[in-house]
Amino acid sequence: MRTRLQGPLRMVFQAAPHAADAECPTLEAPPVPIVELTVYAGDSVAFGRVALTADRVTDLMNDCTEFEFVDTFLQSLDDSHGLLVRTVVVARNEIFAVAVAGPRGNPTRRIRTRPVPVELQLGRYDVSGNIHVVPGTDPIIGFRRRRVMVPLTEATIEFDSPDGRKLSRFGTLLVNRDLTDWIAPASRSDVRPPEVVPELEGRGLAKDFTPQMLGHEA
After folding, report:
1. CA–CA separation, 98 vs 37, rounded Å?
2. pLDDT tens-digit profile of 62-95?
3. d(CA 48, CA 1)
């Protein structure tokens, strides 16, 4: 992850208003929805916000290769050190998984599929969840033919940290196909509906993680 990059993807939250035309009234552009994402990288986890400039987060993550997040808290997985930054640029090839909160995107893009429980290994991350496939197709073969970021639902992600084993559940988790070590049908029956994740529970990110930055436990 980098705090600066020449020519990254820039997320525009609001354009400056144009001068009013006396004869031709202007129409305001609809606001761009903002989503909160949890990004799991090789050495850290990032909690930040990004503008949803595509129909779905899956499309955004597949169409672009670099992303600029704002109001982001970075936490090292090596020593638990935390840092709050205004902006950070993350390359897609650094992202093992992305947890999605907020709006689910354009509902017209959804097609009829069947969920199949799977397990995956992505670096230090153990992931389980439902991959959605067209009836009659092989989920494992289909996974390898998908675009880079593949969505799972009712997903669980686990990993080791200096503070012990961490486990979080999300309604939607995107996994990086190119960084997946292996994928297999689920061997255990613990793929459950998502639960509220404390890190994202209804409060501002800066407020949530300031105690950690100051060295106190939440």
Report:
1. 6
2. 999 999 899 999 999 999 899 999 999 999 999 9
3. 13
| Position 173 pLDDT exceeds 60 | yes
pLDDT in tens, 45-59: 999 998 888 889 999
pTM metric for this prediction: 0.72
* Residue 65, phi then psi, degrees to nearest 5: -115, -10
Strand segments (E) across 19-163: 34-41, 44-51, 66-76, 82-91, 95-100, 114-122, 125-133, 149-161
Between the alpha carbon of residue 15 and those of residues 22, 24, 87, 105, the distances in Å are 20, 19, 18, 22
User: For the CA atoms of 66, 71, 76, 77, what is the dihedral angle to 10 degrees?
Assistant: -80
Please classify residue 26 by burial: count the beta carbons closer than 10 Å to its beta carbon, then call 0-12 exposed, 13-18 middle and 19+ buried: exposed
* Residue 175 near residue 183, CB atoms below 8 Å: no
CA distance 129 to 152: 6
Cα gap 6→62, rounded to integer Å: 21
Determine whether domain 34-199 maps to CATH 3.30.300.30.
no
Helices then strands, counting H and E runs in the chain, come out as 3, 10
- The domain locations on the chain are 34-199
Measured distance CA(87)–CA(46) in Å, rounded: 11
